[in-house]
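Ticket reopened. Same input as before:
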Amino acid sequence: MDKTIPTLAEAVAGIGDGATVMIGGFGGSGAPIELIHALIDRHIATGHPTGLTVINNNAGNGHVGLAALIEHGMVKKLICSFPRSADPVVFTDMYLAGKIELELVPQGTLAERIRAGGAGIPAFYTPTAYGTDLSAGKKIEDFDGRPYVQERWLKADFALIKAHVGDTHGNLTYRAAARNFNPLMATAAKQTIVQVSHLVAPGAIDPETVITPGIFVQSVVQVTNPQQEEVLNRAKAVYP
Amino acid sequence: MSKLSNAQIAWRAAQDIEDGAYVNLGIGFPEMVAQYQPPGRQAIFHTENGILDFGPSPAQGQEDWDLINAGKKAVTLNPGAAFFHHADSFAMVRGGHLDVAILGAYQVAQNGDLANWSVGAKGVPAVGGAMDLVHGAKRVAVITEHVTKDGKPKLLAACTLPLTGVACVTRIYTSLAVIDIVDGHFVLREKLSALTLEDLQAQTGAPLHLDGPLQDLTVPELS
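Engineering reply: fixed in the latest deploy. New output:
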């Protein structure tokens, strides 16, 4: 078994117009910058993909990564919890101009909806957002005398995620707080494409330390020394 | 003193955090609470993006951008720190495992309703983890100025701004007082000694009740 793909371009070649794409990371930590940039490269060369629905905690920062994907007009709708940042100009301008849809989801509900999508659980109840604007129109039910909001699973056609070490079977470990949404999104997409900083042979990762088992991963591409969004933004980088 | 500084409000909130408590501090002002833990006490701080027991920011140039807090600031790790993914992180939150959550506020109502995420329809709405954090922690405390910049009460009979959570706040540390929420009422515990009860009531949008002895709110001078 070998799930490795030789190039970033080949790794993202199957993502079509209108696809729903989960993108890992929390701010820049754990964000698969190179995979996102490969998708932008394809759009520049071919005009596709467009009309994407993107699921991420944030809305990008500066003019790289997710912000650049939005800036290139590739994103129709964003599902996220916190579309503000230190340099939010790209999303803010497009949102206020009515050029991008936003589904705002509380952060823990976003995580659990993705977890439920990956686990085959179509709906669940949470206390979060009860009595607020973000539970408007949702089913409310009492359990043990307390009201809860029904929330539905989130699933995607593709997940673009970043891991630290991966083997050719797709077993993954993460680095520090770059884990965040990545292991959840890996479970909830039909096609999970991961960029790993270190590609190793099966057996090189201690099974005790595997965070994402390879069953959740379809494609692995190695990106040694990946870029960090924070570093790019401090250098005022613009992609491409 | 006529009112407490932000640092002094944070100091007062920190005095109620027990040694070994698991604590989440909201982004911004609430993060100051970590600086004022009493000697001999060490809380364990949780951040939504997947760290327990993180420490202060590293020196400039020493940042590791995979090691950030929910405010996207670089942090360090204390011995005994742990990483986890976002679903586990919010299991800690909603599942009742945190001892204390401390948040900022635009408005708090006498029944414990909190408004702290949106000032209305303008601009880009953003909620982050606030709506999750107000449910599950054993104590949900707010730190805030007692009144708005233009002098209007922030402690009200009912919130007028969009709610973050219903009946979730248990204690409020303001620039003038410490107030508990008990059975749908504001119960005044401490106030600045220079302030009369009438003065404080005039700056509060719902009745202040007394239950037991009223203490002076005393804090050290802080830079």
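Helices of chain A lie at 8-11, 33-46, 65-71, 89-96, 107-119, 182-188, 229-234. Chain A touches chain B through 55 residues (CB under 8 Å). Please confirm and we'll close it.
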